[in-house]
Amino acid sequence: MDRASILGDAIEYLKELLQRINDIHNELEEAKLEQSRSMPSSPTPRSTHQGYPTAVKEECPVLPNPESQPPRMEVRKREGQALNIHMFCARRRGLLLSTVRALDALDLDVQQAVISCFNGFALDLFRAEAKDVGVGPEEIKAVLLLTAGCGMHSLQ
């Protein structure tokens, strides 16, 4: 096979894929219109087509505004030097970097963490170990609250 025929086959295949995408999009739009016409005022279970819902619930939960809440901080000591740290506060520019630097300055070995900057700043360290035996949960809590731009009076 020469390059031209390979390229021609690839173009035909891409056209088929685009057509399939358009067909699926049209089916979804039709199902959405049909569902909106027959939808009662109270939510009911959705019918299914080949095991899949014909309509997707498009409601999002209302999350609390982190700007109007005081920061939440929890530091729990586990076995040995292991710690769990949970932090939630309003998002601000540079908070992630300053928090990582603070954890590094506290000489914590972070082994498992989830950080989110959606609708506020949330840090969940499911496992961290304090290399320094003298670093306690209250000291870690105080440093992270200062990093978040709060004093100890904001502690919850």
Task: Report what the structure shows.
A four-stranded antiparallel sheet has the order 3-4-6-5, with helices on one face. 37% of the residues lie in helices and 24% in strands. Strand 5 and strand 6 form a beta hairpin. The protein has 156 residues and is of the alpha+beta class. It folds into two domains: 3-53; 66-154, Alpha-Beta Plaits, CATH 3.30.70. It is elongated. It contains three helices and six strands. The protein has helices spanning 3-38, 95-105, 137-147; strands at residues 48-49, 52-53, 72-77, 82-89, 108-116, 121-130. The longest helix is centred in the N-terminal third of the chain and has 36 residues, at 3-38.
Question: Which labels suit this protein?
Answer:
2 domains; alpha+beta; 156 residues; elongated; 6 strands; Alpha-Beta Plaits; 3 helices; single chain; 4-stranded antiparallel β-sheet; disordered C terminus; two-stranded antiparallel sheet
Fold topology:
Blueprint: H1 3-38, E1 48-49, E2 52-53, E3 72-77, E4 82-89, H2 95-105, E5 108-116, E6 121-130, H3 137-147
Antiparallel strand pairs: 1-2, 3-4, 4-6, 5-6
State the gist of this model.
The chain has 156 residues and is of the alpha+beta class.
Mean pLDDT: 77
Shape field: elongated
What fold name goes in the CATH topology slot of the largest domain? Answer: Alpha-Beta Plaits
Class from helix and strand fractions: alpha+beta
Give the uncertain stretches in residue-range form: 44-62, 152-156
The percent of residues in helical segments reads: 25-40%
- What is the number of strand segments? 6
Strand order of the largest sheet: 3-4-6-5
| Alpha carbon gyration radius | 26 Å
Corresponding CATH architecture of the largest domain:
2-Layer Sandwich
Q: SSE string, helix = H, strand = E?
A: HEEEEHEEH
